[in-house]
User: Which sequence fits this backbone?
């Protein structure tokens, strides 16, 4: 049975490709980067500078994965130059059909809510946006951000991480989670933030997440500890149980895609966090498990993780969250390693309608780190 929403997105995409509309005025959502005009950028960036105009735009190299990313370089008239308006911006968009379909499962809504509502409430190192908007019919979307590319070092799976750098990551998460822990804003300004379990179940029902993850585990035999691979049939049911726990756990505002590539180094060890398209109402333990397992080699994780979890719990309490007992928190941390694994086995073997989300070497290394953590921590055997 076809999904009416998916059919609407497909029809809107076909219309966009046929008509190729240009984005010229405020409120237009570009269907592609080539559809952006100097007039549209003028409406966005020059509205508070009388007489200023964008005279030319130049597109940087395309970079597509879960979203379609691009830097845009800008030229201005004399008034714009005199005002020191930004010479470049960094954009994330859903232009391709596969990106629109995948991100319509809550990611587009999540990111626009973050930049339009939550970002200003947070004292953290994260990007700031000039615009975050989408078309609810076509699910074409765009986020236009301040370009920090020349200010920071973006991380990869090869970035060496010491304990101080991971503590900086956990400090940022504690400020995010502490600010919104069981917040009444989820009943008012942030009521439209989806839950993590809603997002997960949407991916299961509409995008075949179970098959993606099971295929990804099968494809990862060479990097999976033998005793865990022998129990691979238990991984998906245990992952579902870990997600079901979110129905009863206390909620906060969570990032949910905190793998190392989404972090940047401002001034080592100070870290910042980007790519806010998977934010949800969720539980802190997923972010913490996902961060530690992808940031560190298995050897360093084994040596440091208990101290790091204790550090996070202390910082969470200092930032307005509850004082959580370590033993219970440790169980949550161990269990949510499974939901982190699901994000990357899906990435390794996505369904045919999903975009190619990450380079192969990145995907393999993050699966290796997470799946070893699942084995080390005996995540399959956590039961409450």
Assistant:
């Amino acid at each position: 049975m076809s999904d009416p929403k998916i059919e609407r997105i497909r029809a809107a995409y076909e219309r966009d490709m046929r008509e190729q509309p240009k984005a010229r005025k405020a409120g237009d959502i570009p269907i592609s980067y080539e559809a952006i005009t100097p007039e549209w950028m003028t409406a966005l960036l020059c509205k508070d500078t009388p007489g200023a105009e964008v005279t030319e735009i130049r597109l940087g190299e395309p970079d597509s994965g879960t979203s379609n990313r691009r830097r845009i370089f800008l030229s201005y008239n004399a008034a714009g130059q005199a005002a020191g308006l930004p010479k470049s911006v960094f954009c994330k968009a859903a232009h391709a059909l596969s990106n629109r379909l995948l991100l319509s499962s809550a990611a587009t809504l999540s990111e626009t809510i973050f930049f339009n509502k939550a970002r200003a409430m947070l004292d953290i190192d994260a990007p700031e946006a000039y615009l975050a908007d989408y078309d609810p019919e076509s699910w074409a979307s765009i986020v236009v951000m301040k370009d920090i590319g020349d200010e920071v070092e973006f991380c990869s799976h090869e970035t060496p991480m010491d304990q101080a750098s991971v503590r900086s990551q956990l400090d940022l998460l504690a400020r995010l989670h502490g600010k919104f822990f069981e917040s009444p804003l989820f009943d008012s300004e942030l009521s439209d933030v989806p839950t993590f379990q809603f997002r997960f179940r949407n991916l299961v029902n509409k995008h075949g997440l179970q098959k993606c993850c099971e295929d990804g585990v099968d494809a990862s035999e060479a990097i999976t500890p033998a005793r865990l691979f022998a129990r691979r049939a238990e991984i998906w049911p245990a992952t579902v149980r870990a997600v079901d726990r979110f129905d009863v756990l206390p909620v906060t505002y969570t990032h949910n895609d905190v793998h190392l590539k989404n972090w940047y180094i401002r001034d080592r060890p100070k870290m910042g966090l980007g790519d806010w398209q998977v934010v949800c109402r969720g539980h802190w333990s997923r972010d913490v498990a996902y961060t530690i397992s992808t940031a560190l080699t298995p050897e360093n994780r084994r040596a440091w993780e208990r101290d790091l979890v204790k550090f996070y719990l202390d910082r969470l309490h200092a930032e307005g969250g509850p004082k959580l007992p370590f033993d219970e928190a440790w169980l949550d941390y161990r269990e949510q390693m499974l939901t982190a694994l699901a994000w990357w086995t899906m990435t390794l073997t996505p369904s045919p309608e999903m975009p190619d989300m990450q380079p192969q070497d990145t995907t393999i290394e993050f699966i290796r780190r997470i799946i070893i953590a699942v084995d080390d921590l005996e995540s399959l055997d956590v039961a409450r």
In short: The two ends are 37 Å apart (CA to CA). The first strand starts at residue 54 and ends at 59. Residues 243 and 307 are 25 Å apart (CA to CA).
